[in-house]
Amino acid sequence: MKTKDDYESFLQLSAVITGYQRVDLLGTGVAWDYFTSFCSIVGKSISDELWQKSSKLLKRHKSNEEKLEKAIRVELLSDNKFGPLVRNLIKLWYLGQWDELPAHYRVTYGTTSKDVSHILSGDSYKEGLVWEAIGAHPMGAKQPGFGTWSSPPKPPDID
Amino acid sequence: MPEETYDVVIVGGGISGALLANKLAKKKKKVLILEAGLDAGLNPSTYKDYVDHFYTQQAKVPNSPYTNNSFAPQSNVLDIAKINPPNPETSGYFVQYGPLPFASTNTRSLGGTTLHWLGICLRMLPNDFCMKSAYGYGVDWPINYWDLKGYYEEAELEIGVAADVNDLRYPGTDKHFFGDFEYPKGYAQKGKKNKGKYLFPMHKIPPTYLDKYISKGLKGMKFQDGDDSIDIDVVSIPQGRNSDPNNDYNDPRTGYRYRPQGAVGKMHEGERCEGNSNCIPICPVQAKYTALKTLSNILSVKHSSVRLQSQSVVSKLNYDSNGKIQSISYKQYVRPGDLNGVKEKKVSGKLYVLAASPIENAKLMLASRAGRSSGQLGCNLMDHPYVLTWGLMPDPVGPFRGPFSSSGIPSFRDGRFRSRHSAWRTDIGNWGWIFPTIAPWSNVENRVDQNNMFGKKLRRTLYNDVQPQFRFGFLIEQLPQSTNRVIIDPKYTDALGNYRPVIYYDLSEYEKAGIAVAKAFSDQVMRRMGAADYTAYSPADPGYIEYQGKGYTYHGSGHIVGTHRMGSSRKDSVVNTKQQCWDHKNLYLIGCGSMPTIGTSNPTLTMAALTLQAGDHILKHLRKI
């Protein structure tokens, strides 16, 4: 099924660009919401293209993380069309918010009326990856408990 | 004709109105509280609406959870902008003539600004009450610290303050500062009486890792300010935030041991600070005190003698030729912004109390052409200009965990230097660079958009970017100036036809000199800690000032003080020591507006103490009527 495949490409691409595992991303509970919101904000045809392209890269470099990262940098992040989208996807995962696409992108590739800066939802704010990444918790949610702030910070286990 | 008669009509459902109503309710006085805003927050579901609204706001500023209401408009820090005199800056609620912007905001919903306050509960120092005679600046209060000491204790109980007396060291004080328990004369204590050495109801909020790190680094530090060598001391901050109760403290209201008060309508939630790191703008579990707690306690009593009426904006005080207030006119609305259904009403009481923010109190008095004989009404508006410095420590220090600020450096709160420049209080900021640079959002945007990072490298870099972040805040004492003032102008009104505050505001050389010394102190601290200083002030900042060739930026502290100051003569003050208006004997103006000077403590605790003191006077006054 096409949507299922696209969602899988979305998840696998998201894992590489965020530095989190697929299971971590699914564990946020907002992955599907991000996928559908992303597609509807940037428009179906361009998001379809992105999933196709991602799927190709992911298959081609399946067993080589280094090569995959390089391919993502060269063919997606430095691409005029896909770069702004993928950077927005990273920020969506990290901050739970959509940043309006850059003006040059909007003029060249078009966009939808949903492309305005906003926080997707209360959950998307709380699930922002940045909080775990910096060794904290989303402000105003997932509170760590009385007095926990007194102990030394502990770096998250990344590898 | 007025609709109903009360013993006391209170304008404003914030902390002052709530604490006063609480005191009056204990004596079964018939009280009406008129609140301009909505009464949201009084039950768990509407409070959760505030929290949910906060989550989805991009700019998580102090008023972000509390939706703007055009019938009870409030200022917003996002509206603070540079002013180009002689034209006013009018984009926000305040009409600002400057020349500098008044940068603080308050909240106009039930609970008032305690909804977004930080919760710091510092007492003023003895010399703060006699600035003129001790240092030749400002004015002396008509009362002193010792007149207020018992009321500070009462306020610390009503708010629920967490602190350990032995931890608290302030310049210009000795062991008598907290001394022995001395509740106000006649204060009814149930059960075993609290006697002997003073205790707070709860133990201190544990210090953050950063507090301990800085305390260790600054041990033994001295700072040379002119001829004065100042010992630098890192000290925990008393907070209106739930912590472990002090088992030796007897709650005189119940006769039992003190029990922290949890969330309104959900008493088992928020009995301790849970580390939400979100005191400002909203504590999701209500471990932080808000006036909603006191209001809910009063209103949930069967046959409560207090009535709350929200969505009722007072527009005018009506008085007779002797100055006696006859009634209060207000506009009651059904839906914010909808003029259909707005009703103009009047209400009467034996006594009237204005307990709104100093800016709203002044505005209402001016609109009523009341209380003007001293010429001081609306004048002496003060804040703590809040100057930030920020940097990176050599080690990870664990920011973004715990309350906004749990320790500070009180070393500059008092000293001989006050005859040269402003005193200040230094707070240690626990939330990295959120205030100066909007970290960690800015870190993500910078690393992704500018540095082209992604994946695990991005993750690792963000940890290293943010973990060493720390920030100081310097709360500069501002002197009372008659030229810093609130006026009204028929040109500027809100959607309900009430006046918008028109503000004139500036910083004096005394304050600017204080800012310069505070920055020099920060420089020395950074050197001593081996920290990388990233402080940067830009001429584009709304609060940018220059002093002796150097630039600095101040922000607001949210400490709106002055406009109806207390004094010993009707010639130079708006209210007397009872906070009773000189010109209108059945009118009291309470809250931060009555403070003649601001000192270096966050003003809420002093406002609470003053309110409780006024409450005793008001009860006495009622007995005489």
SSE blueprint and pairings:
The complex is a heterodimer of chains A (159) and B (625).
Chain A: H1 2-18, H2 22-27, H3 31-42, H4 44-60, H5 65-77, H6 82-95, E1 97-98, H7 103-109, E2 118-119, H8 122-126, H9 129-133
Antiparallel strand pairs in A: 1-2
Chain B: E1 5-11, H1 15-26, E2 31-34, H2 44-55, E3 95-99, H3 131-135, H4 145-159, H5 209-218, E4 222-225, E5 228-231, E6 235-236, H6 291-299, E7 306-309, E8 312-319, E9 325-332, E10 343-354, H7 358-367, E11 386-392, E12 407-409, E13 424-429, H8 434-437, H9 441-450, H10 455-466, E14 469-476, E15 485-487, E16 502-505, H11 509-529, E17 532-533, E18 544-547, E19 550-555, E20 587-589, H12 604-624
Parallel strand pairs in B: 1-2, 1-10, 2-7, 3-16, 10-20
Antiparallel strand pairs in B: 4-5, 6-12, 8-9, 9-10, 11-14, 11-17, 11-19, 12-13, 13-14, 15-16, 18-19
Structure in words:
The complex is a heterodimer of chains A (159) and B (625). Chain A is mostly helical and 159 residues long. Chain A contains 9 helices and 2 strands. The longest helix of chain A is centred in the first third of the chain and has 17 residues, at 2-18. By secondary structure, chain B is of the alpha+beta class. In chain B, 23% of the residues lie in helices and 17% in strands. Chain B contains 12 helices and 20 strands. Chain B has helices at 15-26, 44-55, 131-135, 145-159, 209-218, 291-299, 358-367, 434-437, 441-450, 455-466, 509-529, 604-624; strands at 5-11, 31-34, 95-99, 222-225, 228-231, 235-236, 306-309, 312-319, 325-332, 343-354, 386-392, 407-409, 424-429, 469-476, 485-487, 502-505, 532-533, 544-547, 550-555, 587-589. In chain B, β8 and β9 (325-332) form a beta hairpin. In chain B, α1 packs parallel to α6 (291-299) and α4 (145-159) crosses α12 (604-624). The mean pLDDT of chain B is 97. The interface between A and B is large, with 50 and 55 residues.
